[in-house]
Design a protein that fits this description.
Residues 13-112 form the HTH hxlR-type domain. This is Helix-turn-helix transcriptional regulator. By secondary structure, this protein is mainly alpha-helical. The protein has six helices and three strands, in the order H-H-E-H-H-E-E-H-H. It has a single domain, classed as Orthogonal Bundle (Arc Repressor Mutant, subunit A). It has a three-stranded antiparallel β-sheet with strand order 1-3-2. A hairpin with a 5-residue loop joins strand 2 and strand 3. The longest helix is centred in the N-terminal third of the chain and has 21 residues, at 3-23. The protein is extended, with a radius of gyration of 19 Å.
């Protein structure tokens, strides 16, 4: 690999890192999974995600909107209603997110066993 090519790889890694951090965030994952069911109003979304604060949901939605994964629609009502839904990009992300979630769920027994074995060895 040439020096120039190595610089390109490092530069690309720096650009990818924030994207991976965003899509690996637990709140992002839960918002994406929830929005797979279709357009959802803010308060309905907040009620459906246990433990998320209004501030964290707002931050997460803004970041996902900025990344092009979520679209925000404001309806001219009093008070204004806001609805969020996955964009085409967000829908494409939901596929690997759900696959990763399924993998984690399917492997919980093996992970628990590994934890127990590790902890048992460390006690002595």
């Amino acid at each position: 690999m040439t020096i120039k090519r190595m610089d390109e790889v490092i530069s690309d890694c720096r650009r990818v890192t924030p994207v991976l951090a965003r899509v690996g965030d637990k709140w992002t994952v839960l918002v994406i999974v929830r929005l797979r069911h279709g357009p959802t109003r803010f308060n309905e979304l907040k009620r459906s995600i246990e433990g998320i604060s209004q501030q964290m949901l707002t931050r997460t939605l803004k970041a996902l909107e900025r990344d092009g994964m979520v679209t925000r629609t404001t309806f001219p009502t009093t008070p204004p209603q806001v609805q969020y839904e996955l964009s085409e990009l967000g829908n494409s992300l939901s596929v690997p997110v759900l696959a990763l979630g399924k993998w984690a769920y399917d492997n919980l027994p093996a992970i628990d066993a590994a934890h127990n074995e590790y902890d048992r060895k460390r006690k002595y």
